[in-house]
């Protein structure tokens, strides 16, 4: 179980631009949950992910995983059990390295990066079969640099790479936002497949309300650093996109838009 | 003939330094000015040890270690104290000037009368008389090849992969649960180790240590890397590390040609700067900093 307790986070503290993002924010995710998070820009969705992953510090409060306090752990330490896919497809791969080298790098996560051969030849077939399930033909391009692939292909690789080794949490930060609708669909289906196969606890931030409704077993809407809607189980199954849209409109009216 | 041998000798000595710069500039994307201090550091360490009577071959690994230590310090200044990359290098370069003077004892240490890696009793007894003019060249070639092959090998290891990833996409290194700062420090250590090693060989080749020997190291190395990599880009299956060696020799050939044309040694810095500027403009390498794609 992942738990954020009494999180306080201010941006630009002590200046005239001081902005309170989280004021006593609490959030819980049960093991095995697939949570979709929606909300307007600046509502704190991505900041929440950054706080969980350790990319930004909190002013006070604690982050706990299964009762263990990880607030003081550095970002790279937390990534031993967290996998993350970013909105920008370039963030999850190395453009100047080949597909094979990228896969090998990811495959070694959790082990030592020592003087043993970078590419383990015995694993090549495993990488091939992994890539084949993407249906993008990447399994025949092992020696091509990732930088020459399209955004969708890179994002598919990023997803594979971030979930290749055993992790507990998968963090998806608008990971289909930069893709065309068709590719986004493929990536979303792949995501769902991987999450259910590996039984990953997943938090997905998305602006695509249909994905939020269709995928996952819990839906959370955030606004100005607060959770304003939280549905799970059968409550969520009966939700419609229109219902969320309606809430969005209410928020906008409150803001005076 | 002697000019060609001289160009090859110098080019290959500086190639080791250029390989170091290749690591920081091309792989890590870190403009490391430490090299202007670590090149003479290698030379100073070598001079001090040789004057004390140490076996000249032992000065090679010791110089490498000294350079690596300098690189680690630059890395710590940058990573732990969050000083900008360029400034971290300048801090170390400035500090090393004094340190190099302290190590060598004075600004100019002649090594003419001492045995060195190219010229010693053991070597002279093995090498036949006829091959003597090429003795130095072959020795440099051997050292350079060992360095290049070791570096190529390292870049194929898991640690080498991580180093390449750290320059390419530090976010990925973090995602792999590794501290990208430590990887950077490792890269700077290896790079400055190579630069100091190059300084060590250079001092023995020139048979003198001079404190000013490091001035412009960064520019020479960068020019070599950029010339080599851009020339060899169109050739299939040429490794970047080999391209850097070619670049270094070509750079030396240009310098030798300029001197042959009657230019004074004092004009060289201005010409180097102009050459470097032109190379950068042609290669468009400066655009690399605008990382639109990553």
Automatic annotation (TrEMBL), chain A:
Recorded topology in the membrane: Peripheral membrane protein
Cellular localization per UniProt: Cell membrane
Pfam families the record matches: ABC_tran (PF00005)
Highest taxon of the lineage: Bacteria
Keyword Chaperone among UniProt keywords: no
CC terms in the record's Gene Ontology section: plasma membrane
Residue ranges annotated for the ABC transporter domain, each copy included: 2-249
Main location: membrane
GO molecular function: ATP binding; ATP hydrolysis activity
Alphabetic keyword roster: ATP-binding, Cell membrane, Membrane, Nucleotide-binding, Transport
PANTHER family from the UniProt entry: NITRATE ABC TRANSPORTER ATP-BINDING PROTEIN, TAURINE IMPORT ATP-BINDING PROTEIN-RELATED
Protein name per its UniProtKB record: ABC transport system ATP-binding protein
From TrEMBL, chain B:
Pfam families in UniProt: BPD_transp_2 (PF02653)
Localization of this protein: Cell membrane
Membrane topology of the entry: Multi-pass membrane protein
Listed GO MF terms: transmembrane transporter activity
Signal peptide (UniProt feature, chain positions): none
GO CC, alphabetical: plasma membrane
Top-rank lineage group of the source organism: Bacteria
Main location: membrane
Transmembrane segments: 12-28, 58-79, 86-105, 132-151, 185-205, 211-235, 242-262, 268-284
Keywords annotated in UniProt: Cell membrane, Membrane, Transmembrane, Transmembrane helix
PANTHER family listed in its UniProt record: ABC TRANSPORTER PERMEASE PROTEIN YPHD-RELATED-RELATED, BRANCHED-CHAIN AMINO ACID TRANSPORT SYSTEM, PERMEASE PROTEIN
Protein name: ABC transport system permease protein
């Amino acid at each position: 179980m992942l738990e954020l307790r009494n999180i306080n986070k201010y941006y630009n503290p002590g200046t005239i631009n001081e902005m309170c993002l989280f004021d006593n924010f609490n959030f819980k995710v049960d093991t095995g949950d697939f949570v979709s998070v929606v909300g307007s820009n600046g509502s704190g969705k991505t900041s929440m992910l950054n706080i969980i992953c350790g990319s930004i510090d909190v002013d006070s409060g604690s982050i706990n995983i299964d009762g263990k306090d990880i607030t003081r752990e550095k970002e790279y330490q937390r990534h031993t059990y967290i996998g993350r896919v970013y909105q920008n497809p370039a963030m999850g791969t190395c453009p100047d390295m080949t597909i094979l080298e990228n896969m090998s790098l990811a495959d070694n996560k959790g082990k030592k990066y020592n003087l043993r051969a970078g590419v383990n030849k015995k694993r090549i077939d495993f990488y091939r079969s992994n890539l084949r399930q993407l249906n993008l033909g990447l399994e025949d391009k092992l020696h091509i640099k990732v930088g020459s692939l399209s955004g969708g292909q890179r994002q598919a690789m990023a997803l594979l790479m971030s979930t290749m080794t055993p992790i507990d949490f998968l963090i998806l930060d608008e990971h289909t936002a930069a893709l065309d609708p068709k590719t986004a669909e493929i990536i979303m289906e792949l995501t769902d497949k991987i999450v259910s196969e590996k039984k990953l606890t997943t938090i997905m931030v998305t602006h695509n309300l249909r994905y939020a409704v269709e995928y996952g077993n819990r839906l959370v809407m955030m606004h100005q650093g607060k959770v304003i809607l939280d549905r799970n189980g059968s409550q969520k199954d009966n939700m419609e996109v229109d219902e969320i849209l309606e809430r969005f409109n209410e928020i906008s009216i409150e803001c005076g838009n | 003939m002697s000019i060609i041998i001289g160009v090859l000798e110098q080019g290959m000595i500086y190639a080791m330094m250029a390989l170091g710069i290749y690591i920081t500039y091309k792989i890590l994307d870190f403009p490391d000015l430490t090299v202007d201090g670590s090149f003479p550091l290698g030379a100073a360490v070598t001079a001090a040890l040789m004057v004390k009577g140490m076996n000249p071959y032992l000065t090679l690994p010791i110089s490498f270690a000294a350079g690596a230590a300098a690189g680690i310090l630059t890395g710590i200044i940058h990573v732990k104290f969050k000083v900008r990359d360029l400034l971290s290098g300048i801090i170390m370069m400035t500090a090393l000037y004094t340190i190099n003077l302290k190590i060598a004892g004075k600004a100019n240490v002649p090594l003419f009368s001492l045995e060195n890696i190219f010229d010693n009793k053991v070597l002279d007894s093995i090498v036949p008389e006829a091959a003597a003019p090429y003795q130095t060249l072959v020795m440099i070639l051997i050292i350079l090849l060992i360095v290049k092959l070791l570096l190529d090998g390292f870049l194929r290891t898991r640690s080498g992969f991580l180093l390449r990833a750290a320059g390419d996409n530090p976010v990925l290194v973090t995602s792999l649960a590794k501290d990208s700062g430590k990887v950077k420090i490792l890269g700077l250590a290896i790079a400055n180790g190579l630069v100091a090693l190059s300084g060590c060989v250079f001092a023995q080749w020139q048979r003198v240590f001079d404190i000013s020997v490091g001035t412009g190291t960064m520019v020479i190395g960068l020019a070599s890397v950029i010339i080599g990599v851009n020339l060899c880009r169109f050739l299939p299956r040429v490794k970047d590390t080999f391209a850097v060696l070619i670049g270094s020799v070509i750079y030396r050939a240009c310098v030798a040609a300029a001197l042959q044309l009657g230019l004074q040694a004092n004009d060289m810095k201005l010409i180097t700067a102009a050459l470097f500027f032109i190379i950068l403009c042609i290669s468009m390498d400066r655009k690399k900093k605008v990382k639109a794609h990553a």
